[in-house]
């Protein structure tokens, strides 16, 4: 008896961005952020704080710029501890893709 294989169905296309750090950062482009990072096995500086304007973010990195000097930094997500903003954070909860953007202080 022949075995009929069904072709795999394509993955569903998300209707809204999922709630990942890089997506939240992209929603907050242009805002000043304070980024706290830890660098293991680094005897010179184990922890470091970066402050700058959010330019963009990807799965494994954040790009910020210093508004005073224009210097840009590419920071790796693997070193990220947490991020703070001095103004409300723009965020769309993934459970409500049709909602207006929320701001969280």
UniProtKB/TrEMBL annotation:
Q: Which InterPro entries match?
A: Spore_coat_GerQ (IPR014099)
Q: Which domain of life is it from?
A: Bacteria
What's one Pfam family here?
Spore_GerQ
| UniProt-recorded name of the protein | Spore coat protein GerQ
């Amino acid at each position: 008896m022949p075995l009929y294989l069904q072709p795999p169905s394509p993955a569903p296309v998300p209707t809204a961005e999922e709630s990942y750090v890089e997506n939240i950062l992209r929603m907050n482009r242009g805002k000043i952020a304070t980024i706290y990072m830890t660098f293991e096995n680094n005897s010179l500086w184990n922890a470091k704080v970066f402050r700058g304007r959010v330019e963009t973010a990807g799965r494994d990195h954040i790009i910020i710029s210093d508004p005073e000097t224009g210097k840009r930094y590419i920071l790796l997500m693997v070193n990220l501890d947490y991020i703070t903003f001095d103004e409300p954070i723009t965020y769309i909860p993934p459970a409500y893709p049709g909602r207006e953007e929320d701001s969280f202080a």
